[in-house]
Amino acid sequence: MTVPETAPAPEIPDVDLATFTLARAAEFGDEPALIDGPTGRTIGFADFGRMVEALAGALAARGIGRGDVVAIFMPNLPEYAVIFHGVVRANATNTTANPLYTESELGHQLSDSGAKMVFTIQPFLETARKAAEHAGVTEIVIVGEAEGDEPTLADLIGEGSAAPAIEVDPATDLAVLPYSSGTTGLPKGVMLTHRNLIANVLQTDTVFDIGPDDVLIGVLPFFHIYGQTVIMNLGLRNGATVVTMPRFDLDQFLSLVQEHGVTLANVVPPIALALAKHPAIDGADLSSLRVIMSGAAPLGAELSEAVANRLGVPTVQGYGMTETSPVTHVSPIEPERIKPGTIGFPVPGTETRVVDPETREEGTRGELLIRGPQVMAGYLNNEEATRHTIDEDGWLHTGDVAEVDEDGYFAIVDRLKELIKYKGFQVPPAELEAILITHPAVADCAVIGVPDEEAGELPKAFVVTSDEVSDEEILGFVAEQVSPQKKIRLIERIEEIPKSASGKILRRQLK
């Protein structure tokens, strides 16, 4: 079925992303824009604006300008936002890299993106140096204290060079090049324009209505588009305070929510799981929270309800991809309108289709297709992958299987390439995982298909157990709740489910 726009797209101003984000910085003055969670170090809005302008001037003085790419290779710190918007204000493009990358992984991204400069912190310098050498990048800038000869961010900001004139075309120039595997294959540069990102901030804000009284916790990595758009840029644009965490630690997360009065917590399913099951939650004061939003991977209805009931906070789910800046769907946050397990409705200005992956006929279950102002310009230097993902009519093929109910609520039930084929029946791993995780002895889980000569594939569960429980009990628990073809046939116990920084299960590692 084709679902028309739920509402017209917000009016998208024809400006660059830095101007858009900093439009009210002077108005917010000394109010805290960014707080480093572990130390309490704070950057106010007015200072944030001045630092962005100063960095843009220093970058321009070094020849960085329109069409150039600058890499950020560091964890979440207040300076991340300064660098990100300083690069944009210099008319250049960011490429944001996972700080856990190896030398070869970072080297690939630096080479593929054509980066000319890398910002990093001292503990990651050796990896950055080796990757930069491999990629032919000659300049590295250290955030914080430097132990070598590299210039620091403070050095650049202190130079006093004037920011250049704004030269970008927001509709075509790139603000950021994050890397994504897309629906298939190796990581590719996702070309996101200024307009893409501005549109998505405005689209997402229609649901959450962020304002100066809000405090967001920046626990999700800013190198990932979810943390970048929905926490960093959405918060700063609207005068909210963003409290950064360089890595997730549950005790620190709970302490920061209480200390700073966090009102909106954007999380991923592994954090939601901790909020639902970890005993540390019982002693935490989370009364400041007004909403919890999960994204990046499916959140089952049972787990969503468990979080909401335990914390007494509306817990909703959103959906998106790096290729869509990222948000395309968000659940309403009003308690009476929440349907646990669903991703709600398309955000304003977003068209959607649900089509059978084989016949391409429209229906209420099938591959989710997206069209809207947040859809990427394409993959960098990869026209074939772009054509495979965005068709000639501008529809982005997500590779995710969605269902739409009679009220128009969407739910993601699996990925096309992850569906298990058991004797010709399609078995969605996410459905089985949502059931498994409700067993009181199962702390975490993942399901994959393993080859079988007779059945084609068998559903196999990897489980992390917190209490003594037999395989037979777990198998029976699931079997009681699914049709025969969906039964889990094999179980393997492991100490930890491998996941990406954004919370996605790394099924390839399990296979």
Describe this structure in words.
It is a single chain. 30% of the residues lie in helices and 25% in strands. The protein is of the alpha/beta class. The strands form seven sheets. Strands 1-18-19-21-22 form a five-stranded antiparallel β-sheet. A five-stranded mixed β-sheet has the order 13-14-15-16-17. It is built from 16 helices and 27 strands. The chain starts with a strand and ends with a helix. Among the domains are: 38-167, Rossmann fold; 419-510, 2-Layer Sandwich (GMP Synthetase, Chain A, domain 3), CATH 3.30.300.30. The mean pLDDT is 93.
What is the total tally of β strands?
27
Low-confidence stretches: none
Q: What structural category characterises the helix and strand content?
A: alpha/beta
**Count of DSSP helices?**
16
How far apart are the first and last residues' alpha carbons, in Å?
34 Å
The CATH topology of the domain at 38-167 is Rossmann fold
Q: What's the CATH architecture name of the domain at 38-167?
A: 3-Layer(aba) Sandwich
**Main β-sheet: number of strands, strand sense, barrel status?**
5 strands, antiparallel
Would you state the CATH class of the domain at 38-167?
Alpha Beta
How much helix, percentage-wise, in residues?
25-40%
Strand order of the largest sheet: 1-18-19-21-22
Strand content: 25-35%
Radius of gyration: 23 Å
State mean pLDDT (0 to 100 scale): 93
Overall geometry: globular
Specify the oligomeric state.
single chain
